[in-house]
Amino acid sequence: MPVTTPAARAAAPSPDTALPQDFGALLRQDPEIGSILLAETGRQSSTLQLIAAENFTSPAVLAALGSPLANKYAEGYPGARHHGGCEQADAAERIAVRRATELFGAEHANVQPHSGSSAVLAAYAALLRPGDTVLAMGLPYGGHLTHGAPGNFSGRWFEFVGYGVDPDSGLIDYAQVRALARARRPKAIVCGSISYPRHPDYERFRDIADEVGCYLIADAAHPMGLIAGGAAPSPVPYADVVCATTHKVLRGPRGGMILCGVELSERIDRAVFPFTQGGAQMHTVAAKAVAFGEAATPAYAVYAHRVVAHARVLAAALESEGFEITTGGTDTHIVVADPGPLGVDGRTARERLMAAGMVLDTCALPYGDARGIRLGTAAVTTQGMDEDDMARIAELFGAAVRQEGDPGPLRAEVRGLAERNPPYPG
Ligand SMILES: *Cc1c(COP(=O)(O)O)cnc(C)c1O
User: Could you tell me which residues are beta bridge partners of residue 162?
Assistant: First the structure.
């Protein structure tokens, strides 16, 4: 079992100052909401956050989010706003854009999308017309809602064709992607997923898109932070447009972003504002700038690599506990595990894990109808947990899912593990 040295642990980029918020004033004015925020802070620091899409932002990011920039209206873009008094808003957005383009080596960045879904909506608005055919990972294999779900705008307004994964290997079936692209002649191919634990082969997707003459949109909402830290390949050299969230491994505020080349920059900007959004949330834009600044540091690169190393340890240890790991492991922060061999499906497993204080999602499996569980190591790694902790978490998983003994002591151990690694020390 790999050991994490005290030096490596010290290098863990967990935030080193306390939360900036003083809930005291809020509690006095509005005890109803104040007590909820206090309870949520307690929940986050006494349970294990293993939802693959979650992380702990730094106190600096939270400070920007809680700043009076939240009061500012700033429709438009720096230097071309529809409102007065935008000097500081412009300065913040220019810094956010410059940091994003430098961090990801992109020609253009739009940092205004309110969320990952808003970023994808704007990308489609920029490149497609209603009724166009789009090829994306099928929802049963890990496609996102914005990749053609019937209840989402994407499924309503576009003709989505889904590609899948090989049921045995769990890996994207590129032969199928190519065959579907040739047969259906999509206007765009989307690569990116909510639960695929491996790297998409962006070069291969580019080849297929070129062969049929369509756009390639990378929806890198999940791996964007790994890409920032050099722990995952970048779609930027291959995709026409890259959409992402800023709040997953990237560890920024809840929000979205879009990267593209200069040729598409005006179309993308117009698709965000005024086509799909109104005023930018400038406090969030400032917080994105802070997060991009943090993600450009050597400490963040160490973090991103540790996130992947931790996911690999967790995947291997869960396999020893009897879980079946889709694709046989992971290259990212995501692990998808089938608890079937332990006699339960993902829903029951999640309930039992929740009872022990371990918070995670269920997800589709590449085979059959039963659901699996999806977990991620971004948040626990931000807290400064190490590889030994990951191995212990896998044992706790096994015990909780098998319902060995009392859930009480399990819950107590999980609480101890969380409290020894506070996300916001002090
Ligand atoms: C998370 C995610 C999104 C959407 O992000 P929201 O901020 O929840 O709207 C879109 N696409 C993929 C692949 C994602 O993982």
Answer: 136
Cα distance from N-terminal residue to C-terminal residue, the chain: 31
Does ligand 1 have an atom closer than 6 angstroms to the CB of 115? yes
- The residues with which 163 forms a beta bridge, in sequence order, are 137
> In the prediction, which pLDDT does 18 show?
58
Residues β-bridged to residue 217: 190, 241
Backbone angles phi, psi at 40, to 5 degrees: -65, -40
pLDDT value of position 321: 97
* pLDDT for position 5: 41
Whether the per-residue pLDDT at 109 is higher than 50: the answer is: yes
Instruction: Specify whether the CB–CB gap between 181 and 230 falls below 8 A.
Output: no
Residue 404: the pLDDT is: 78
Domains observed in the chain: 65-295 (3.40.640.10), 298-420 (3.90.1150.10)
Cβ-based neighbours of 98, under 8 Å, separated by 6 or more:
none
SS3 category, 336? strand
- Of residues 109 and 404, more confidently modeled: 109
Measured in angstroms, how far is the CA atom of residue 204 from the centroid of ligand 1? 23
Q: 86, 101, 30, 127: which is closest to 280 by C-alpha?
A: 86
352 lines ligand 1 (CB under 6 A): no
Q: Which residues pair with 243 in a beta bridge?
A: 219, 258
